[in-house]
From TrEMBL:
This is C2H2-type domain-containing protein. The chain crosses the membrane at residues 196-219. Residues 79-100 form the C2H2-type domain. The keyword Nucleotide-binding does not apply. Keywords: Membrane, Transmembrane, Transmembrane helix.
Length: 243
């Protein structure tokens, strides 16, 4: 009986699902893009974006719930509000929608998914460039949205850091909103991952570490043996006293 109860908790729970006119999945994709391709540059400039900026964490309807997810392993997620367990993240999302809907501030328009057009969410979620025919009207609309975000979040009249970040945002996100030519997304890069050389050196160091300790052990053993031999030599050279 206990096993059945646990399995039901791990899977899914029934309950009224409240409709929220904001995609949790696309909001999550938008936030991941912000974290990956924008936050490192804000940290480098030590720049604090205003709460009026649509990229601010407070303007993400689902941010608090996303921060209350506990990833245990590939088959277990936990709700940090009530500690219930689920087999997959999608079941935890459903749990938030049915059991913790009251924690969402739906009184204000804070749907981060609304910025997906500017941030190229579709490209990231599909993990490859779309082969669909370019729509000039949609591209122009997304570029305008992208530039308006740059203007509101990084006003160029607020100092050198804001001006540099304004330019970076245009190059990083807005320039790719164009039909002719091949799009190059996020040309400024994002969070730095360990390079292949660094990874290879780390593995090599782990492999050589036991060998180093073995050499140190053998060296110390030989030193002790040599010291003992030196002590025996004076003792052997001593002459016995006549009785």
């Amino acid at each position: 009986m206990l096993l059945v109860t646990v399995c039901r908790t791990l899977d899914q729970e029934s309950g009224e699902v409240h409709e929220v006119h904001c995609s949790r999945e696309r909001s999550r994709a938008a936030w991941n893009i912000i974290e990956e391709y924008l936050m490192p540059f804000l940290e480098r400039e030590r720049y604090q974006i205003s709460s009026k900026c649509r990229l601010h964490p407070d303007n993400d309807l689902f941010r608090d719930q996303e921060q209350h997810k506990i990833y245990v392993d590939i088959s277990e997620w936990r709700c940090a509000y009530c500690k219930k367990r689920f087999r997959a993240e999608k079941f935890l999302d459903q749990h938030f929608d049915s059991r913790h809907y009251n924690l969402l501030n739906v009184s204000h328009s804070k749907c981060l998914a609304d910025l997906c057009g500017a941030l190229h969410c579709d490209f990231v979620m599909n993990s490859k460039s779309s082969k669909s025919k370019c729509n000039p009207a949609a591209v122009a609309r997304n570029r305008h949205l992208c530039e308006s975000v740059a203007n509101s979040c990084f006003p160029i009249n607020e100092g050198p850091s804001a001006s540099r970040l304004h330019e970076l945002f245009l190059r990083q996100f807005c320039d790719a909103h164009t039909c002719p030519g091949k799009r190059k997304l996020f040309p400024k890069g994002g969070k730095k991952e360990p390079g292949i050389f660094y990874l290879a050196m780390s593995i090599l160091s782990l492999m050589l570490l036991p060998l180093f300790y073995l050499i140190v052990y053998l060296y110390q053993r030989e030193m002790r043996r040599g010291t003992q031999e030196l002590r025996r030599i004076p003792q052997a050279g001593r002459k016995t006293k006549p009785s």
